[in-house]
Design brief:
The protein contains 11 helices and no strands. The chain is an all-alpha fold. Helix 3 crosses helix 5, helix 3 runs parallel beside helix 8 and helix 4 runs parallel beside helix 7. The chain is flat and about 60 Å long. The N terminus is likely disordered.
């Protein structure tokens, strides 16, 4: 059985992460009919890749937000940077829950998917109205992020409980350095930008801060074993 499984995954995995929802859904649906025992392996590999790419990506978004503010808005806007940081946390949880979300859809386990999405919608509206009227625009963003985290954390947590997946696997092996570097870069450089004055693109805080923050993130990504697989997939698609 193992050689058959390896051959199946060798054919499918290079495609799973190109168009996650379009490819992963039929893949898991097919496994549900032909080889249900293979679904946890597909979930695990999908989650590991999304963690490897998603955590650094959202940290990088926070770090480059001052640069985006100057280019897009025309000036350094601390409120914009703060909103980017808040929304990045919420959407990171959403992205990390995607493999569980897709597996539940493909296997017809819709109860908790529906519950998570409904909770997100209800909390988004209720907290947005209440907190927005009381505290203003920033509270609306906080409400939206809280609703997003609560709703999709339910989907992710339910998958772990339902399929007896240890919560420790939410931090994949060999990815602790990715999380530590991304968190350090975001936590260190976020106040560095927000509390300082940035007058132009050539401000030292942007000219040196942004590259330094990105370098902190890139180094553990480069030495991570997943980097070779991702690079192989990227180059194979480029050649094709």
């Amino acid at each position: 059985m193992q050689p058959i499984q390896d051959e199946f995954y060798a054919r499918r995995y290079p495609q799973l992460f190109e168009q996650s929802n379009q490819v992963l859904l039929p893949t898991v649906s097919g496994l549900q009919e032909s080889h249900p025992a293979g679904i946890p392996d597909v979930y695990e590999k999908s989650y590991r890749l999304i963690f490897y790419l998603g955590v650094p990506a959202f940290a990088a978004v926070v770090i480059v937000s001052p640069l985006v503010s100057v280019l897009w808005i025309g000036r350094y806007e601390p409120v914009f940077i703060g909103f980017v940081a808040l929304l990045s946390m919420g959407w990171l949880v959403n992205v990390l829950s995607n493999p569980a979300y897709v597996v539940d859809l493909a296997t017809g386990a819709l109860r908790w998917v529906t519950a998570g999405c409904v909770l997100t919608a209800i909390l988004n509206a209720a907290l947005g109205i209440v907190l927005g009227n009381a505290f203003g625009g920033t509270a609306v963003v906080v409400a939206s992020v809280s609703a997003l985290i609560a709703g999709y954390a339910i989907i992710l947590g339910e998958y772990c409980l339902e399929h007896r997946v240890s919560f420790r696997q939410l931090l994949p092996p060999q990815s602790a350095s990715i999380l530590a570097a991304s968190a350090t870069a975001a936590i260190v450089f976020f106040p560095f930008f927000v509390t300082g004055h940035v007058s132009s693109l050539f401000s030292p805080r942007i000219a040196f801060g942004v590259p330094a923050g990105l370098l902190i993130i890139v180094v553990p990504m480069w030495i991570h074993p997943m980097r070779r697989r991702v690079w192989s997939w990227v180059t194979s698609r480029a050649v094709a």
